[in-house]
Amino acid sequence: MKRRYKLLIGFVVTGIILITIFLLTRDRSIYYLSLGDSLAAGQTPNNTIEESYGDYVSEYLKDKEVLEFYTKKFAKSGYRSIDLLNDLESNKKIKVDGKEITIKHALIKADLVTVSIGSNDLFYKLNIRTEFDLSEFDDIYTYVDESISDVDKLLYELRKSCKEQIMVFGFYNPFTNFSSTLADVVEPVIVYANDKMRSLTKKYDMTYVDIHDTFLANNEYLPSKLEIHPTKDGYKAMGRAVIDLIDEKMLAK
Length: 253
Prior knowledge:
Layout: H1 2-28, E1 30-36, H2 38-41, H3 53-63, E2 67-71, H4 81-90, E3 93-96, E4 99-102, H5 103-109, E5 112-116, H6 119-126, H7 140-161, E6 165-169, H8 180-203, E7 207-209, H9 212-216, H10 232-251
Parallel strand pairs: 1-2, 1-5, 5-6, 6-7
Antiparallel strand pairs: 3-4
């Protein structure tokens, strides 16, 4: 009788341990969605698509054994806020491992969403050339406001579908390793746009990913030519910025 009782207790304790492990593992698993423009896609200064910041983040989560799912297939080079908004309205579909996924379904399931968007809006208007004069654009700050207004609409829609952690990148100055003169001219616009983006993330209870100062301090993150896309080291730095926030806001819990 005592032996049976001990066996029963052993089974119960083992069951509790297994259930606890399962729940802890399930709660820590992260469904990760990377959205946005060429930075989310991983476009290099040589116009190829390679590893993006999201790929480095997903590798980190995989090493931590907490990655449930990851895709950057909704991201596309050249995307502006309105393009991603259109994807949400049409509920864009992609295929991952032969299975069809809609963007809204992915957002509902997501534990983590990273977003890089708005750079194409800004630099399309600026039309950067080797010689550039900001005084040519009397309405540039009004244009930034209009661009950020589109981002506002996008973040509102993203928050409607995803109630979990959404991290939104700010902007870096892409010309610091090409021309200090050009970088200095553009810098006030970048700072202004970042202030607006930071306010939007607070508005929607999202996390702002600040990469501005990191890129200013490290020339190796940018190419030495007139090109807005970062080097491999630059993408790794963007990934590390997200990883630090994941450690602080998600894995530390």
